[in-house]
Amino acid sequence: MINTVFFDLDGTLADTAPDLATALNQILEEQNRSPLPLETIRPTVSLGGNAMLRHAFGIDEDDHSFPTLRDRFLTLYRGCLADATRLFPGMDEVIDRIEADGLGWGVITNKSSWLTEPLMQELGLDHRAGCIVSGDSTPQRKPHPAPMLYACQLLGCKPSHTLYVGDAQRDIEAGQRAGMHTLVAMYGYIAEEEDPAVWGADGFVYNPFEIIAWVRNHNQAGSNNTT
Fold first, then answer.
1. Which of 10, 15, 19, 171 is catalytic?
2. Could you tell me the CA-to-CA distances from 190 to 8, 20, 52, 56, 82 in Å, in that order?
3. What interhelical angle do 49-57 and 66-79 show, nearest 10?
4. What are phi and psi for residue 53, nearest 5 degrees?
5. How far lies 226's CA from each of 4, 43, 163, 219, 221, in Å?
6. Global pTM?
């Protein structure tokens, strides 16, 4: 029986791509480069800031300019953190239903806490989430299972009684390695060349409402098996 639902943040709980794209295009313009359309930036968001910069500038992390560009990008992003970011349509109702069903919920993200915490505040979810585990909350980040296990520790739940919803392969891998059930958020930031079918998740959801249906069906099946 699932008693707790954990969400990835970018591309699963909230549509953060517009503000991240704004910051990325600002730094491109500062470097006298042409801005990129949102649709080309969007698939890179769940892969993190480094992936976005690699995509925009065509350089790797070992390039001498990369640390400076990354620091500037994050500074610009902090300045527009919640200008256009919103929960995905229906996600607010999903959270309401999770709470109404007596389930716990939280966020597990690779985003650093100095960005995660103010964003959750802007979204009005900081006091509602049972826990917020950021990329620097544990020594390792996803796909390592440490953040997942830490979240379970904070909420006092067993991994086998939890569900993790994410839109990147590392989300599913981290959940699996921790012993959680996993769902792929197909409405998130998944590039055309990626194949979520090979990630090994327990299921796929194409809108947030399907998360509730999946949990209820899973728990109903479990209840039937014990009677």
1. 10
2. 13, 16, 14, 17, 22
3. 110
4. -70, -40
5. 20, 42, 20, 11, 9
6. 0.96
How big is the chain by its Cα radius of gyration, in Å?
Answer: 18
- What are 221's two structure tokens? 């099946």
Annotated catalytic, 8?
yes
Please state, in angstroms and rounded to a whole number, the distance separating the CA atoms of residues 24 and 77.
8
For 159-188, the pLDDT digits (tens) are 999 999 999 999 999 999 999 999 999 999
* Predicted confidence (pLDDT) per residue in 54-111, tens digit: 999 999 999 999 999 999 999 999 999 999 999 999 999 999 999 999 999 999 999 9
Q: Give the type of residue at 70.
A: R
Mind listing the pLDDT tens digit for each residue in 143-157?
999 999 999 999 999
Cβ(118)–Cβ(14) below 8 Å: no
> Is-contact 186 196, C-beta < 8 A?
yes
At residue 46, φ and ψ (nearest 5 deg) are -70, -10
Amino acid in the structure at residue 110: N
Tell me: domain 4-15+85-225, CATH 3.40.50.1000, correct?
Answer: yes
- Residue 38 pLDDT greater than 90, yes or no: yes
Catalytic-residue membership of 10: yes
DSSP assignment of 190-215 equals --TT--GGGS--SEEESSTHHHHHHH
The confidence score (pLDDT) of residue 44 equals: 94
Residue 222 has pLDDT above 90, yes or no: no
